[in-house]
Amino acid sequence: MLDLLRLLKSHTKTAYDIAKLEEYKGKYVAIDGREVIELFMSNMTLLPKTHKKNRIHISHLLAVMFIVRTIMEKSILPVFAFDDLLPAHVEAQESHCLTQDKKMQVKELLDCLGVPHVEQENQPAAALCAVLCGHHQLVKATSSVTTTPLMYGAPFWLEKLTILPGLKAPVYQVDLAQALAQLGITDNKFVHLHLIWGGVHGLKRTTGLSLDQSLKIIKEHKSLTKALGNWTTTQAPNLQSCKNTRDAIKKCCKRQVVDFRRVSKPNVSKVTAFLKSKEATISEKEIKKVCKIVNSAVASAASY
């Protein structure tokens, strides 16, 4: 992912730049729930010491509280998208993975907070984020840990919107239309570039290609297999399969209407009772603070 962003930064003028967050106030952003929550779960050592004791058991719930607070403090409205099928790494039941049981708890907490979430059968979260952003008038952008939603055609992608607690960094935006125009490639060729350098499949390690070489070769060849040529002879069929799968999912998403309930005022007593029942180490003061932020964002959304 970082390599792809480095390419956009060096080869485009405005496609990858600091986001103007005032343009997002009162707008929805589609969040890849699993990615951002697992990022928090794997970095909980950055949280205050009081949260460390039970982090393996309740860190996914604390992560939701921090993520919702971080986004809605900016007067931005989140809609979480979740994978229907569990990725392979989750089946290992690692402590920082969002298992099926933890995902159900997260959804229940989001309901108590009045924050919308979506999930569709056989649809990856990245594809849902892209179709929400591309076909729903209320959703302006997507945000995730990886740039995968761009591969599915998301018009806008935000980096570092859900920054970890205690860290300060500007939010960056990728404008896909500008990226394609300034790189001089089509959306299909962008998929090829993303498969090699996006960090999704780790294929860049097998190609031996630099960023400039990859871009040049992709521009010259229509077929991904031909573009890679002798560098990845054994990998080419797998790459083509990845592209075909992506195209099929994207086509399927476009046929379906993805809608969601709007944000609503949180139920403080339900949030408190639910977190208490899960033995989440978070104070009532912090719970009320997060709920107040959600309330404020919901109220201010009407004025944008």
Task: Describe the secondary structure blueprint for this structure.
Blueprint: H1 2-11, E1 16-18, E2 28-32, H2 33-41, H3 55-72, E3 77-81, H4 88-91, H5 100-113, E4 117-118, H6 125-135, E5 139-143, H7 148-151, E6 156-159, E7 172-175, H8 176-183, H9 187-197, H10 204-207, H11 211-220, H12 224-228, H13 236-255, H14 268-277, H15 284-301
Parallel strand pairs: 2-3, 2-5, 3-4, 5-6
Antiparallel strand pairs: 1-7, 6-7
Provide tags for this entry.
304 residues; alpha/beta; seven-stranded mixed beta sheet; 15 helices
Brief description of this entry?
With 304 residues, this protein is α/β, with parallel strands linked by helices. It has helices spanning 2-11, 33-41, 55-72, 88-91, 100-113, 125-135, 148-151, 176-183, 187-197, 204-207, 211-220, 224-228, 236-255, 268-277, 284-301, and strands at 16-18, 28-32, 77-81, 117-118, 139-143, 156-159, 172-175.
Characterise the protein shown here.
With 304 residues, the protein is of the alpha/beta class. It is built from 15 helices and seven strands. It has helices spanning 2-11, 33-41, 55-72, 88-91, 100-113, 125-135, 148-151, 176-183, 187-197, 204-207, 211-220, 224-228, 236-255, 268-277, 284-301, and strands at 16-18, 28-32, 77-81, 117-118, 139-143, 156-159, 172-175. A seven-stranded mixed β-sheet has the order 1-7-6-5-2-3-4, with helices on both faces. Helix 3 packs parallel to helix 15 and helix 6 crosses helix 13. The two termini are 33 Å apart.
